[in-house]
Write a structure and sequence with these properties.
Blueprint (H helix, E strand, L loop, with lengths): L2 E4 L4 E4 L3 E2 L12 H13 L4 E3 L8 H10 L7 E6 L1 E3 L6 E3 L3 H15 L4 E6 L8 H13 L3 E7 L3 H10 L4 E5 L11 H8 L2 E5 L31 H20 L4 H10 L5 E3 L6 H8 L8 H10 L19
Parallel strand pairs: 3-4, 4-5, 5-8, 8-9, 9-10, 10-11, 11-12
Antiparallel strand pairs: 1-2, 6-7
Helix pairs in contact: 1-2, 1-9, 3-4, 4-5, 5-6, 7-10
Length: 326
């Protein structure tokens, strides 16, 4: 496992990270023993970059990650996020970027994680009612106090990124990026590269769709949020599955899985791009990590582009895109 740099402030992470969200919520059944074992196996394989957030669970994912890294803190580059506030109704959420909330949220995360600092602290979603300068100013105070080492944003638009970076250096911008979500190529990636900010690609497997394991909604558990995702619905699903079948043929020729091909493709986008595929099982972790050894030739990349061209995916990323900063 090699490392990649995020930003120019000194943050260095494993070239593939581990998204921990699904260990606690959103993707059906939970097995905390297997989840902890998956995190331990990740560290054994050199995957040091762990990603969580206070809203996952809510709160329980940070607690799980905290238990898993107890006694192993020096092996981990730990990232968490704040800003999405859950309510008693699981379908109702709000965004909070107020300075006083930033501190409260961070201190809560540190307590649940059982650490005295996080390595990367993200604003999970932009609060359009609070100037980004105020939010990042409060985040910068946490850096000065040693509670966070580096700062990040998630799903932020170019102008927001520029304004935030002017207040305090932003080391990483996290956004969904994969073969079926290539929107960042238009404005986000050029912006972060101009500013020297690293890019963290979440859902590099298209919420598991690009693994090829999901043949129909019947393959998903009743409480799996993907059942309500536009890209998994009706004609969208069929269209997207046809695209996947084309990519599957290329993977088969290379004797790799479609998941490995999808991760290798994201890795090929640049040394400043770090995918964080999520999984809650060791066998999928090991499959995902093996993608770091795969090299795609220019001819193979061209074939992938032809098979799954930019913008070909059918359906929105979320049922409600209003929380994404534009």
């Amino acid at each position: 496992m090699e490392t990649r740099k995020l930003g120019t402030q000194g943050l260095e992470v494993s070239e593939v990270g581990l998204g921990c969200m699904g260990m606690s919520e959103f993707y059906g059944g939970r097995d905390e023993d297997e989840a902890v074992a998956t995190i331990h196996r990740a560290l054994e394989l050199g995957v040091s970059f762990l990603d969580t957030a206070d809203m996952y669970g809510p709160f329980t994912n940070e607690e799980l990650v905290g238990r898993a890294i107890a006694g192993r803190r020096d092996q981990v580059v730990l990232a968490t996020k704040f800003g999405v506030v859950r309510s008693d109704d699981p379908h109702v959420r709000s965004i909070n970027g107020k300075p006083e909330y930033v501190r409260t949220a961070c201190e809560g995360s540190l307590r649940r994680l059982g650490v005295d600092h996080v390595d990367l602290y993200y604003q999970h979603r932009v609060d359009t009612d609070v100037p980004i300068e105020e939010t990042v100013g409060a985040m910068a105070e946490l850096v000065h106090e040693g509670k966070a080492r580096y700062l990040g944003l998630s799903e932020a638009a170019p102008d927001t990124i520029r304004r935030a970076h002017a207040v305090h250096p932003i080391s990483a911008l996290q956004t969904e990026y994969s073969l079926w979500t290539r929107d960042p190529e238009d404005e986000i990636l050029p912006t972060v590269r101009e500013l020297g900010i690293g890019f963290v690609a979440y859902s590099p497997l298209g919420r598991g769709f690009l693994s090829g394991e999901i043949r129909s909604l019947d393959d998903l558990e009743e409480d799996d949020f993907r059942r309500f995702s536009p890209r998994f619905q009706g004609d969208n699903f069929e269209h997207n599955h046809d695209l996947l079948d084309r990519v599957r043929e290329i993977a088969k020729e290379k004797s790799i899985t479609t998941a490995q091909l999808a991760i290798a493709w994201v890795l090929s986008r640049g040394e400043d791009v770090v995918p964080i595929p999520g999984t809650k099982r060791r066998r999928y972790l090991e499959e995902n990590v093996a993608a770091v050894a795969i090299r795609l030739s220019e001819d193979e990349l061209a074939r992938i582009e032809e098979a799954f061209p930019k913008g070909a995916t059918s359906g929105d990323r979320y049922p409600d895109m209003s929380t994404v900063d534009r």
